[in-house]
Amino acid sequence: MDKVYSLRHLFFFSKPLLTITEQGFYYKNTLYTPDDVRRVYVSNGGGGPKRMGVHLADGRKILINAVALELNGVKPKTGFLSGTNDVFESLRAYFEGAGP
């Protein structure tokens, strides 16, 4: 089953971000393989939610905010002190395991 990650905007609207399939992941209608991931960085927002940036081989960057992230239309509960959630951490593990 494909995993569809979305970002929630203004608490009401959700916009698809990327889809993970068996072949790789789709970002902006382009299929990328795990070999296309060049760099992954995670930062704490100064006491706020965690943020992740993924640099791809073609120069694109995926920016992800833990609080706004959804998986298959379901919003996970984000920890008040940790600034992260299970969906964000699983996506982080996917990208960190994918890169060189």
UniProtKB/TrEMBL annotation:
Protein name from the UniProt record: Uncharacterized protein
Organism annotation: Isoalcanivorax pacificus W11-5
Highest taxon, organism lineage: Bacteria
